[in-house]
Amino acid sequence: MSVNKNKAVKAVEALIAEANKFFVFLGDPDLGDEIPEEEFGPRFSEIEKKFIDLSLLSETPGKRSKFSEFFSSVGDSVVEAQKSLDVRSNEYLGIALAQTHVLPTVFRIPKVSAEIKFALEKSEGEEVDLIFYSQSEQATTMHQQSVNFEITAVPPPPELAEKIISLTPRIDLILSLSTRAAVFNAVEASETLPSLHKEVLLKEENRDRVLISPADPEKRYLLLFAADTTVVKHIGVWHLILTPPRLEPVYYYDRAPRQGEVLKPLKDMVLDLAKKQAEFLKQTR
Amino acid sequence: MTSRTFQIERLPEETKALAQGVRKAAGELLKTSIERLMMPTWPIGECMVLRDVKFWWNFYMAKEGDEVVFFFFQKDRPVRIILDATVSFRAVPIASVEEPIPIDSSQISYRIVLPPFVIAKPSPRQMTELAPEGATAENTILFQVGSGWQNVLAIKDAEQGVSGGKISYIGETENNQGPSQTWRVIPFLALIDSIRSWISAGFDRGEEELLEMLDVANESDPKRILRLVVQAYISAVNSIQSNPPKVTSLLEPLVTNYGISGYQAKVLLRLKPNGELAIDDEDDPFQLLMHISLSPEKISVKARVTIGPPDFIISGPLHEAFISSLQEESALEEIGRLLGYSKDEIKDYLSRVGTRSSIFRTKRERRSDTDILVFPGMLSGRITLSILRGRFEVHAADDPPRVRLIKNSMKLLFAGVPSSTSRGLDNDTIKYFLRFVVAIKHWIEVLP
Q: What CA–CA distance (Å, rounded) separates B13 from B236?
């Protein structure tokens, strides 16, 4: 931050002029040893005003924030902090589930309370500006307002939660053992061509790694499976109609990728999901 | 550049901005937490709600010509004399209301809590038998300073100061003897006791009287400030109940409604002898603390006003600082010389009676105050009361407050057992009480 030199010179000159006037007054031989307050006060006040004008030149501007923006940034911080805790909770759960004597738990920030001191200024528009000074001396004198608040994390009402779920785009995986069993029964019962490789889906060691997603719940499903081999092309997508049972190809299991097509990222993602699913299903049995 | 001082009439607008800020902030928080809400974790997401926001809003006021202005930074003050003001209130979540009903100034009921020893409506008998000659309800105020209908201190023409004011105690009027007059001690001891009891019980305890605020054109500065602080409350309430934040229809059920709770204001008034705001120290300002609290009552809102003399202290950190300053060696010597006792006897005396002393400021100067100290109690088995006047450097805003007696400034006004004829109080001390009387009288005058 810089100070305009001409303004500084003028301010200092004004201060010196007032100080000189005061000095002349003090030098008056008719002035007694005790100066009455009514003589001293007004003269000193003029010097004080000039000093204040000078000090204003070096005022370091504080950081401004609209009131609502301040709370929004506090909210962002709380969300980010909770996200970090979620990651830690996930890691902790991974450890806890492996140890039967440890109770699984998640870590949450239920409430944030704070008291903030700041300066206040009205600028353009309807809102007021919060100003935070970083220099400690300025902060001490300028942060004269305070606000004490609580931000609480609350779950939404159940009906709203359902609505949010219904509106939120997502891909569900069928994890229910009974529904999965019904899907595999339909696969087995369906008449298909060998090119569909339904035996891959029905192989016992593969079943838990078949990803099943409802295209139309209880009626139609999409099945994904990737073999955990170095052969890139062994990844397939099937469409299953439950009644009457009918299995259709979406992406052939033994289809080699065309030139330029990169299957590996998709295969890796499916393998990763499949591995987690298999672990989960193992725990539920 | 942003203006740094604002006309007092803008106070409601600024308060409205703060209240609106809360609603807008709540909306921003909701939008921020949308991501969390959508997270497919158990329990199903969470959203963040802004609860219980409490503001302490400190600002200053000053008289600039005919205008009263307010500002946030003391260095922006336009004149020497400024008023310290603090407005505090809470924005709290409330149940949803289909159509919030706005409030307006016609629903405000103003009540003032006068000191319990003020006889707001004296009887004709009290006025004729106990007040100075020529006393009327308009020019005289009566204080009940003891039990019994005749224990009355009556002060006529207080605005005329020590030269023109007339004081009667239990029907006996003081004779004005001129500039070197010393006044009887007993009447003012009775008043000091009454003030002391009032302060220790709390300013806000007492009978409420209806306060008329209809004459806006001729209202005094303190009443103007009162009216605008109340209008600021109205603005805040109406603003926070309406203007919901703009969010998507999905989030609308999560929008929290807010109300205003615990709204109060403390304004340290500095008044000229005529009851108007002082502009300069030359106005010899008298300090009065006005405390305003607003609370809804069914279909109306009560604005409760209490007033008190902040310069009169009987306890607390500042009182302790005064007593400590007298425990310094030089102070003990000075007081000992005045009372005719040794330093050790004075030290012992102060340690015993210090907590029961009353201290009040009669004059405020740039770098020092003149204070009266009233010490009741035995001193070496003889004196039961001593009244001292001294000049002190007072740093009340420090934590803890600091006080230093200015050397050789102490004067003994009275020491001994006060009788009905005992004198000793000087004009400056009486002037303090007259100024206090004027301040109270201005509030009584607008009672219906």
A: 8
Sequence-distant (≥ 6) Cβ neighbours of residue B131 within 8 angstroms: B122, B140, B142, B152, B154, B156, B168
Q: B365 CB near a chain A CB, below 8 Å?
A: yes
Decide if B438 contacts B356 (C-beta within 8 A). Answer: no
Find the DSSP H helices in A27-102: 37-57, 67-97
| Nearest-5° Cα angle at A214, A225 to A280 | 60
Give the separation between CA B114 and CA B417, rounded to whole angstroms. Answer: 32
Residue B22 pLDDT: 84
Per-residue pLDDT reduced to its tens digit, B191-235: 999 999 888 887 777 788 888 887 777 788 888 889 999 999 999
The answer to whether B242 contacts chain A (CB < 8 Å) is no
Tens digit of each residue's pLDDT (9 = 90 or more) over B35-58:
666 655 544 567 788 888 898 888
Q: Are strands B257-271 and B286-297 parallel, antiparallel or unpaired?
A: antiparallel
> One-letter amino acid identity for B285?
P
pLDDT at B2 over 60: no
Q: Which portions of chain A are predicted below pLDDT 70?
A: 1, 56, 58-62, 121-128, 133-143
In a 10 Å sphere around its CB, with 0-12 CB exposed, 13-18 middle and 19+ buried, how is residue A75 labelled?
Answer: buried
- The DSSP 8-state label assigned to residue A225 in this structure reads E
Cβ atoms B388, B335 nearer than 8 A = yes
How many helices (H) and strands (E) would you count in chain A? 9, 8
Tell me the ipTM for this assembly. 0.73
B184: tokens are 């009887």
In this prediction, residue B401 carries a pLDDT of 92
Top pLDDT among A134 and B126 is at B126
Which SS3 state, helix, strand or coil, does residue B23 take?
helix
Q: Which residue among A70, A146, A161 places its CB closest to the CB of B44?
A: A161
**Does the structure show a pLDDT above 90 at B14?**
no
More confident residue, B386 or B46: B386
Kindly state whether A161 is in contact with chain B, defined as any CB-CB distance less than 8 angstroms. Answer: yes
Report residue B174: phi and psi, to 5°.
-70, 145
Pairwise CB contact (< 8 Å): A75 & B33:
yes
Residues 6+ apart with CB under 8 A from B264: B87, B88, B89, B291, B292, B293, B294
The whole-number pLDDT of residue B43 equals: 47
- Count CB-CB contacts under 10 A for residue A99: 9
For an interface test with A, which of B8, B11, B20, B28 has the most A Cβ atoms less than 10 Å from its Cβ?
B28
